[in-house]
């Protein structure tokens, strides 16, 4: 699935957490996963991972036996041991024999089935893989640290403990202790057996021979090496149990200097982990780690003092301590050593040369940011939670993992990265603590840090053009670009990269000043500069995206699509070959959807006020989690990569709106994504699983993210949350951990499962938060000369969770020195050894103190304990006190040395004067303080009259109470006020905020009491208090409402937040909050709130969004009601309609009721001598459509008689005078039919009549005056409303009528006038334009006049739906409705017909342009039911007479497509069968296929159209009609244009093939190139780039010579129409010879495609 992977860092402080098998596969534990590496090649590669543990992996080991080396075992802090097949990466089995945390694991090298593991309680479990048997023993009740199975005998096992003890036990005898190896003073980190007996130095050999009792160990033991934290390595003889030699670590010059700094020699022991490894086939050589990551090779057989040498040189060594070592001998004989270290690198060493072969970097935290350098190709920067930045040269050939690490000056997570667009090596970064800095990647200098910090996490960095005030000044005085940062507090700052020490400026001030914004801006969450630096898009926490133009940041538009916080924004890349794609903006939010908007119109022609965009160009909604990253492909058109919380990455084809590839290689939330700048088939992703993946979309098997279930990580998180709550963890309502994103919807930078870091001794100390043990990092406490270790694991809590055994309820902390070692060996250690293994003691019963039924009342404590005690002395002492007191009382001089109230005469102070009493009180106070009774001191001071002192004492100790506060007024007003204030502070610390506020009110501090409640988020109580005490218009009250609203909005309580905004007088914010839900009721309520608050613009915007949503669900009545409510409010006081003079006749649409008392037919008196028949000027100029020949000898100018007779009623014959043409008599009598003029001249070309009379319509008397048509001014005015809401209602009206006519979807609610009415005159359904005009007049009062011009201006600002081939039907209908509304308004306005003709053409062409040919054909038939495009309306007697060339061309295009449909209907009617006809006509054009398919599926419509056409053209024969219509279709200019277009496409295809061919030839060599050319080209002369370019130039010149009208207005395929005509000629006599000749000529000249040439052979032979 992936190519290269940077895996997670191997776990720290584990004795055996990595291993290697004989086939060169290395496995290591990282977090809760085991990663597998192939180390057999010159460079490593990640094979995959083994996932299944719930907590940290603490041990890993391969089976060493041949044939089973693919088997491996892993242990975890979750108490399980799992067995895996490393080849198939599947779980085979597992066991849970441990109750404590497993700390060590080893698969016995001598037995292929034995796996031994030990936990921190000292329990050792032996598990046999083949049988599943399990046994355990408990040799020592101390914390086990490491273990190792002997490679010589399966019975021998070495155990290392935290106290420095090593035990050799016999597994076969239930853990019988064979030897106790003493010598180390601290914890045993590592144990390693010698592969064979080493040749030790003579002086190191043991002197005493082993005894006979050690015969068991002889021959099966060998030597054991141990590494301890006491900085020594000891080699033991397992035969005798004695030490052979001791090796002390050398103090090398290097002390750290790596990542995070390093400790010196003094701190070496605190940071030391001593790992040892005995390589195979090297019995006299031992490898060990050292203080600062060096690897030392010990020669055990060497003489002299220095027996060691250091591996590697210079920068090859690790920079921090090494935890694990493993070796492997490859099939080639090369022996490698693999090491893991705290510096988060895995190194491979050649033991022959002692040099480092390769280094694999790993990651210690989630990856939050990826960024490719725009200057240094292939240089990838990545940053994450491990507080380091890595620069990776992804194109390096020598080292595929060549990285450089930057850590200086970084003390927090890296959350954002971006390279400078032009300065090589300049890398900007942002951190979790809000800092912004710039690194120079090619120097070792520390980074520059900006003096302006964000208050919270930085989520976006970007370089952009300088804005004011940095943009002021000349070219040398201002920076070429500025650095922008967005933080979690919602601010975007502009930094000067030349001087980061200067203050950064917030762009919000510039936005407010430029756009005149008075209300508060929503907090920003992300932003993105357009690559050309002209536009910036800003995402907000409320889900909106605002687009501003640089440098003044004038707002261009606002995208209101998301309803949750914006997480990421991305403009389309700057290398787009298609200009129309450069304005695509992709946005992702926490709603799991990605929206792509085309902002071309908003950026190039911004509206005033700024447009609000609520409809996306594309919606990409396959993800199931929050969207965290976006990246446009620089190689493919409109291809986008997205990543999400659902653990997957998705590649989309944005133009098609569909997913292409889904990558599921990550095991946790994917946080960032980057497309490779050099390879179009490579994508890089970083995730919460601490990995970075390089993967190829072409190799993925999935196309969409998994559906229907939550990600595994989320399920585990919810489960763990419940466990924590049950165990007394974080409760509902508590604050999340520090580092979580403050906006709860964002969450893309959470720290779940990651590490908290702090600086210790100059290094970065890491403490694992979830499940990993942090006690190894801390300096343990010393107890009785030893260290006391307290585990922080969940399993060590004193309460049983989820039904765990009762023995866990005991306190498992052990303090060294509780028992003697002899007692431990004899088994008196808290457990009983039995033949079956280990039997635990039952838990001790709980000790409870039960209250007796009768309790004695406890005597109150004395206030004067010292004097009371002295009164209980002996009788002699008491009598002496009486004599002394009498002497003091009656003698003028007291006895020598006697001071009443002090010292031995303390008790006499009670019986002497006041000074003596005060002295006694002072002594008593000191005694009370020493005894811990400060309350008694307070009472004594009160008794002595020192009220202020008593209160001061209680305040200092935080023991003020209501009683003391009641006494405080006796000390005076000042003392009372100060005491109340101190008591308030104490109550706040005790979370008694309400009580504290009440006491503040007692001293008349109202505002302080309100602020106290406000600061502790007790908004409801604060508002109640302020409302009860303060004036209604007080600013404090408004501020409280706004603060509470912000908190409620953040928590998702939108309705309550809206009420707060309304109460604060912020209607704008209230409406915005309510509209966040984006459902119809919420939007309706939001629009009403905005309208009532006087925010008319916002009200109209929200109402329009609501109406669009209702219309999309076909709730037309609801949509009109929403808009009408806004129209009524905005036009309050303006009459809805104006007076209509009674002298105008307004025809009523059939079936519609009349209102306002206006009858359906209104008599219009004849004025100014106008006769009953309509007078028309004697001559009328009608220009012929451009480029079309006239037929029948009729000139382009039409001669119309001065008087024209219109038949009065249907069915009554009338005479009509028509000029004679081609032998037709000047007067022709034809009986009139229903709805059709009695006499009609044949149109000259394309349905545009050269001589035509205005027909009469059914039910309209002959003396009727045509209302408001072409130059006849109407006396009725159009109603006017504010902000153009009426024009939106009109568009929705047209959309409803079109939806009922064009689609088959059943509406939720619709108006009666939207249903298709009965036909007028019996000639078919009423055309939509007639019905629209009638409904507009009847329902909306729109019939013409000066108001139409304002409506047209409002309609120009209406946003049209952007159509594509995947657009649903309702979007197409919406687009057509706007076009048709424009046409009807132009019709009502009057004037020339050019704009009207273009608007009708656009309405018909829009569906065809996006592939909805059937809808376009149906719409064209509905608008022109007679098949004549010049007759726009028979009911209102409207004829289209264009003047301009473009309009004539548009009319010609409409007529051509009508004739095209007529031609296919005729062909199908004369074909033997649909199947044979379909087989006979080849597939020569896509348009032909679409129309033919439409004709098949719409048989009923076709028959109706043919019938109507036959009725309309009763005056001519069918053959003449065919010749006339075919003459329009067989246009030679259009044929030439279409042929040239096909030639251009052919040349472009060959150019593309030639480029690909040369690319393959460059890779395969010249020989393959010539072979491919001979195979591809054959015997023909090969085409070259020059020849193809010359052909393209020639064709471009031909296209340039053609008129623009031919290229602009589409035309049916002429070659296809010629073939249809010739097919008709075979089976029908309708086709004339002249028409056949024209068709053949066109085929000979323009049938250039292979399909057309094959089809034409039958006719051209």
Question: Can you tag this structure with a few keywords?
Answer:
single chain; 1661 residues; alpha+beta; 5-stranded mixed beta sheet; 4-stranded antiparallel beta sheet; 38 helices; 69 strands; 30% helix
Explain what the structure shows:
The protein has 38 helices and 69 strands. The chain is of the alpha+beta class. The strands form 20 sheets. A five-stranded mixed beta sheet has the order 42-43-44-45-49, covered by helices on one side. The chain has a four-stranded antiparallel beta sheet with strand order 1-57-56-55, with no helix packed on it.
* Class of secondary structure makeup: alpha+beta
Give the percentage of residues in beta strands.
Answer: 15-25%
Task: Tell me, briefly, the overall form.
Answer: flat
Largest sheet: 5 strands, mixed
Alpha carbon gyration radius? 46 Å
Low-confidence regions: 201-220, 255-270, 728-855, 1133-1282, 1473-1516, 1569-1580
What is the distance, rounded to the nearest whole angstrom, between the alpha carbons of the first and last residues? 58 Å
Strand sequence of the main sheet, in spatial order?
A: 42-43-44-45-49
Instruction: Count up the helices.
Output: 38
Whole-number average pLDDT?
76
Number of strands: 69
Helix content: 25-40%
């Amino acid at each position: 699935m992936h190519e290269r992977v940077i895996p997670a860092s191997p776990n720290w402080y584990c004795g055996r957490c990595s291993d290697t098998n004989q086939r060169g596969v290395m496995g290591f534990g990282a977090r809760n996963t085991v990663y597998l590496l192939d180390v057999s090649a010159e460079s490593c590669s990640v094979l995959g991972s083994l996932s299944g543990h719930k907590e940290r992996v603490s041990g890993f080991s391969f089976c060493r036996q041949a044939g089973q080396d693919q088997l491996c075992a892993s242990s975890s802090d979750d108490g399980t041991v799992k067995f895996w097949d490393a080849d198939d990466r599947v779980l085979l089995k597992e066991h849970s024999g441990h109750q404590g945390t497993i700390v060590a694991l080893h698969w016995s090298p001598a037995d292929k089935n034995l796996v031994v593991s030990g936990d921190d309680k000292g329990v050792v479990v032996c598990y046999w893989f083949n049988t599943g048997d399990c046994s355990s023993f408990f040799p020592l009740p101390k914390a086990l640290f490491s273990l190792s199975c002997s490679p010589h005998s399966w019975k021998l096992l070495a155990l290392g403990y935290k106290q420095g003890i090593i035990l050799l036990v016999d597994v076969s005898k239930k853990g019988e202790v064979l030897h106790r190896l003493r010598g180390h003073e601290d914890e045993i980190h590592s144990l390693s057996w010698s592969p064979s007996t080493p040749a030790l130095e003579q002086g190191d050999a043991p002197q005493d021979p082993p005894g006979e009792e050690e015969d068991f160990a002889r021959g099966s033991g060998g030597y054991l090496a141990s590494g301890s934290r006491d900085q020594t390595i000891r080699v033991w003889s397992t035969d005798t149990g004695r030490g052979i030699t001791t090796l002390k670590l050398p103090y090398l010059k290097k002390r750290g200097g790596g990542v995070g700094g390093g400790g010196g020699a003094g701190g070496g022991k605190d940071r030391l982990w001593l790992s040892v490894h005995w390589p195979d086939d090297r019995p006299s050589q031992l490898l060990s780690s050292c203080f600062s990551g060096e690897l030392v090779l010990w020669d055990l057989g060497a003489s002299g003092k220095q027996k060691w040498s250091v591996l590697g040189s210079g920068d090859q060594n690790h920079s921090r301590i090494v935890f694990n070592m493993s070796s492997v001998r490859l099939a080639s004989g090369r022996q490698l050593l693999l090491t893991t270290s705290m510096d988060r690198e895995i190194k491979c060493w050649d033991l022959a040369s002692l040099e480092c072969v390769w280094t694999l970097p790993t990651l210690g935290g989630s990856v939050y940011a990826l960024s490719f350098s725009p200057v240094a190709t292939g240089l990838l920067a990545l940053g994450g939670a491990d507080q380091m930045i890595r620069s990776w040269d992804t194109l390096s050939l020598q080292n595929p993992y060549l990285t450089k690490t930057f850590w200086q000056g970084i003390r927090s997570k890296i959350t954002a990265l971006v390279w400078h667009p032009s300065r090589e090596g300049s890398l900007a970064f942002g951190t979790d603590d809000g800092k912004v800095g710039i690194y120079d990647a090619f120097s070792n200098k520390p980074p520059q840090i900006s003096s302006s910090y964000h208050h919270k996490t930085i989520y976006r960095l970007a370089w952009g053009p300088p804005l004011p005030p940095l943009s002021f000044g000349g070219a040398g005085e201002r920076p070429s670009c500025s650095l922008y940062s967005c933080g979690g507090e919602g601010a975007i700052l502009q930094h000067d990269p030349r001087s980061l020490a200067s203050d950064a400026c917030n762009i919000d001030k510039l936005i407010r000043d430029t756009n005149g914004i008075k209300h508060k801006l929503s907090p920003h969450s992300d932003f993105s500069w357009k690559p050309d630096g002209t536009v910036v898009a800003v995402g907000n926490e409320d889900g909106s995206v605002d687009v501003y133009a640089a440098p003044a940041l004038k707002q261009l538009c606002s995208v209101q699509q998301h309803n949750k916080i914006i997480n990421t924004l991305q403009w389309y890349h700057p290398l787009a070959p298609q200009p129309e794609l450069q304005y695509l903006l992709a946005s992702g939010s926490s709603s799991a959807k990605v929206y792509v908007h085309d902002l071309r119109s908003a950026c190039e022609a911004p509206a005033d006020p700024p447009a609000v965009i609520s409809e996306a160009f594309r919606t990409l909604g396959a993800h199931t989690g929050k969207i965290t990253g976006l990246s446009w492909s620089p190689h493919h058109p409109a291809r986008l990569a997205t990543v999400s919380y659902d653990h997957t990455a998705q590649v989309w084809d944005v133009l098609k709106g569909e997913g292409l590839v889904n990558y599921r290689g990550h095991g946790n939330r994917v946080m960032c994504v980057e497309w490779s700048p050099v390879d179009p088939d490579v994508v890089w992703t970083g995730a919460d699983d601490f990995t970075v993946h390089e993967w190829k979309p072409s190799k993925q098997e999935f196309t969409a993210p998994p559906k229907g279930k939550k990600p595994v990580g989320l399920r585990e998180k919810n489960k763990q949350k419940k466990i924590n709550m049950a165990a007394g963890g974080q409760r509902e309502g508590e604050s999340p951990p520090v580092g979580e994103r403050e906006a709860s919807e964002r969450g893309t930078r959470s720290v779940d499962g990651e590490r908290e870091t702090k600086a210790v001794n100059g290094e970065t100390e890491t403490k694992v938060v979830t499940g990993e043990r942090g006690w190894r990092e801390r300096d343990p406490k010393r107890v009785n000369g030893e260290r006391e270790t307290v585990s922080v694991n969940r399993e060590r809590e004193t309460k049983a969770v989820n039904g765990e055994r009762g023995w866990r309820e005991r306190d498992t902390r052990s303090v060294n020195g509780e028992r003697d070692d002899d007692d431990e060996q004899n088994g008196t250690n808290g457990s009983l050894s039995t033949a079956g293994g280990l039997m635990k003691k039952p838990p001790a019963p709980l000790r409870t103190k039960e209250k007796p039924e009768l309790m004695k009342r406890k005597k109150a404590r004395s206030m004067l304990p010292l004097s009371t005690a002295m009164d209980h002395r002996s009788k002699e002492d008491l009598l002496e006190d009486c004599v002394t007191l009498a002497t003091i009382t009656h003698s003028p001089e007291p006895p020598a040395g006697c001071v009443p109230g002090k010292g031995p005469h303390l008790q006499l102070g009670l019986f002497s004067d006041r000074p003596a009493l005060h002295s006694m009180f002072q002594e008593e106070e000191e005694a009370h303080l020493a005894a811990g009774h400060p309350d008694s001191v307070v009472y004594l001071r009160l008794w002595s009259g020192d009220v202020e002192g008593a209160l001061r004492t209680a305040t200092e100790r935080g023991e003020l109470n209501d009683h003391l506060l009641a006494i405080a007024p006796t000390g005076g007003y000042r003392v009372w006020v100060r005491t109340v204030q101190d008591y308030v502070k104490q109550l706040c610390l005790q979370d008694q905020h309400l009580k504290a506020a009440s006491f503040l009110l007692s001293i008349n501090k109202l505002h302080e009491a309100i602020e106290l409640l406000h600061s502790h988020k007790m908004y409801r109580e604060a508002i109640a208090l302020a409302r009860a005490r303060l004036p209604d218009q007080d600013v404090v009250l408004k501020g409280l409402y706004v603060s509470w609203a912000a908190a409620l909005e953040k928590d998702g309580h939108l309705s309550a937040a809206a009420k707060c905004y309304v109460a604060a007088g912020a209607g704008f914010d209230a409406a915005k909050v309510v509209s966040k839900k984006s459902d119809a009721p919420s939007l309706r309520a939001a629009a009403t709130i905005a309208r009532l608050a006087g925010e008319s613009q916002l009200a109209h915007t929200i109402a329009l969004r609501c109406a669009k949503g209702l219309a999309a669900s076909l709730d037309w009545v609801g949509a009109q009601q929403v808009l009408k409510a806004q129209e009524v409010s905005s036009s309050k006081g303006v009459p809805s309609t104006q007076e209509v003079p009674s002298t105008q006749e307004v025809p009523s649409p059939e079936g519609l009721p009349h209102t306002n008392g206006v009858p359906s037919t209104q008599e219009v008196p004849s004025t100014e001598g106008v006769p009953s028949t309509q007078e028309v000027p004697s001559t009328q100029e009608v220009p012929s459509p451009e480029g079309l020949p006239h037929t029948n000898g009729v000139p382009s100018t039409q001669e119309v008689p001065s008087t024209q007779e219109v038949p009065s009623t249907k069915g009554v014959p009338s005479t009509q005078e028509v000029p004679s043409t081609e032998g037709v008599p000047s007067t022709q009598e034809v009986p009139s039919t229903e709805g059709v003029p009695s006499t009609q001249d044949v149109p000259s070309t394309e349905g545009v009549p050269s001589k035509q009379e205005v027909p009469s319509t059914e039910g309209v008397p002959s003396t009727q005056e045509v209302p408001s048509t072409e130059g006849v001014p109407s006396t009725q005015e159009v109603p006017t409303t504010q902000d153009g809401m009426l024009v939106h209602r009109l568009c929705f009206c047209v959309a409803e009528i079109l939806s009922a006519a064009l689609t088959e979807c059943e509406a939720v609610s619709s108006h009666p006038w939207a249903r298709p009415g009965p036909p007028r005159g019996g000639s078919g359904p009423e055309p939509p334009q007639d019905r629209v005009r009638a409904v507009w007049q009847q329902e909306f009062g729109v019939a013409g006049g000066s108001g139409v011009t304002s409506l047209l201006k409002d309609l120009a600002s209406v946003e049209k739906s952007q159509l594509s081939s995947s657009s649903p039907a309702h979007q197409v209908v919406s687009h057509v409705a706007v076009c048709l509304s424009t046409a009807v308004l132009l019709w009502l306005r009057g004037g020339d017909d050019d704009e009207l003709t273009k608007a009708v053409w656009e309405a018909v062409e829009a569906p065809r342009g996006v592939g909805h040919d059937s809808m376009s054909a149906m719409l064209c038939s509905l608008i022109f039911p007679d098949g004549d495009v010049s007759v726009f309306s028979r009911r209102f007697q409207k004829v289209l007479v264009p003047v301009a060339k473009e309009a004539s061309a548009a009319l010609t295009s409409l007529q051509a497509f009508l004739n095209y449909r007529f031609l296919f209907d005729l062909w199908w009617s004369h074909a033997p069968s649909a199947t044979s006809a379909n087989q006979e006509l080849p597939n020569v054009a896509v348009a032909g296929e679409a129309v033919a398919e439409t004709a098949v599926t719409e048989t009923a419509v076709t028959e109706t159209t043919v019938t109507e056409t036959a009725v309309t053209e009763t005056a001519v024969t069918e053959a003449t009609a065919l010749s006339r219509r075919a003459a329009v279709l067989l246009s030679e200019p259009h044929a030439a244009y279409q042929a040239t277009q096909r030639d251009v496409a052919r040349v472009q295809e060959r150019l593309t093939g030639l480029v690909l061919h040369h690319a393959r030839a460059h890779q395969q060599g010249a020989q393959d190139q010539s072979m491919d050319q001979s195979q591809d080209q054959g015997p023909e002369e090969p085409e070259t780039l020059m020849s193809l370019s010359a052909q393209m130039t020639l064709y471009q010149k031909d296209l340039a010579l053609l008129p623009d009208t031919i290229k602009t207005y589409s035309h049916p395929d002429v070659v296809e129409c010629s073939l249809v005509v010739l097919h008709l000629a075979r089976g029908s006599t309708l086709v004339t010879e002249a028409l056949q000749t024209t068709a053949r000529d066109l085929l000979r000249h323009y049938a250039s495609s292979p399909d057309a040439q094959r089809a034409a052979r039958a006719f051209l032979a």
